[in-house]
Give the backbone structure.
Amino acid sequence: MVKAILFDVFGTTVDWRSSIIAELNRFGDENGLNADWSMMADMWRAGFRELQGRIARGERAWITMDQIHREVLDGMLRDLGATDLSEESVAHLNRAWHRLRPWPDTVEGLTLMKRHHIVGTLSNGNLSLLVSLAKYGGLPWDCVLSTGMFGTYKPNPEVYLGAVRMLDAEPGDVMMVAAHAYDVDGACEAGLRTAYVFRPDEFGPGKGEDPGDTSRFDIVTSSFTELAERLAE
Amino acid sequence: MVKAILFDVFGTTVDWRSSIIAELNRFGDENGLNADWSMMADMWRAGFRELQGRIARGERAWITMDQIHREVLDGMLRDLGATDLSEESVAHLNRAWHRLRPWPDTVEGLTLMKRHHIVGTLSNGNLSLLVSLAKYGGLPWDCVLSTGMFGTYKPNPEVYLGAVRMLDAEPGDVMMVAAHAYDVDGACEAGLRTAYVFRPDEFGPGKGEDPGDTSRFDIVTSSFTELAERLAE
């Protein structure tokens, strides 16, 4: 019996890419800037992943996801030659990551799972960012856990084991759900149960992650509603 | 403008006493035990407060609220001569603190405040206990913060400032709400805004805390719905 289900957020629970492209397009229009905004969205995310990895490996001091996004964004804007923007305008754009649409199955699936399980986040996002996303998208979390509470980033095992401890559970009582193999594998190595969710459009239409052989995951699914059904079996 | 409102839980948000008395009565009936269960409920709470205070002063290593409740309960049962109880039965009774009724105004008030503010706990309860209470009572928290995340108990200023940091806020953006002056005073000293809620029946009919002069609090109220109205003014 799974007591608690922890979800990755960016890519797994919310569709960051289409939301960020829309915000970048609006930003470009408002500031008279031209760029390939889809590519910029991907660069922004890739830049985040790169810097986050350096922090996880101890090569940089820990900063929040909001701070990483801002550092990457400032670099991108410099490269575009856009140096005369107001702080308010750039800060608002950086907060685009607080306004991401859930995938269509997310809210219904979480609501179903919440009936019989604790549903929470376990995300690299800072707490205030995760709370903003929950309010924006109506995500009915029972608790919002951030890797920042443990001072490191996924897939450091301390993140998964720390969340299990906070829930007064055993690793085998908790399931980690993500659309990214590195995250699900990290949880698996820490002894948690695992569900891999295919999000085939995360990186653009038809561009999802290829996790390779999925037989190592306890559940493999393509939506939160299907996951709810599988857990109710 | 208050960005986030943090609530004490035991006594402020939920009515622990009537719920605990009812569970103790049931426990007594099931196990053929006689006692003044109202007094036992008060002793249980007082024993918790005493042990929590020793931990907050560094005289004991940190343990969770669930663990404190169990230690106090075991002592009370020994004093009653009730030594042949099943572990299952005692563990279930200890989890009575996971099944506490909200005060009648709690859910409506939180739902109103949630529209314009982040509403969260800041409680000495461990996270899993707070999540249980939220599911049991339908408490619509945006986030569940526990002093356990900071390894100490209220009114240590690190608790209030740690919560403010997690919310990426300034102390003046966050309001602490409690029915206990020591807690509201602790928040005030850390620079937070404050609301004192009278709960005149917390320790029995007509037995609420006397906070003394209340002019030091930003808001003084007797219900969460009234607090919501005051914040909306």
User: Anything to note?
Assistant: The mean pLDDT of chain A is 96.
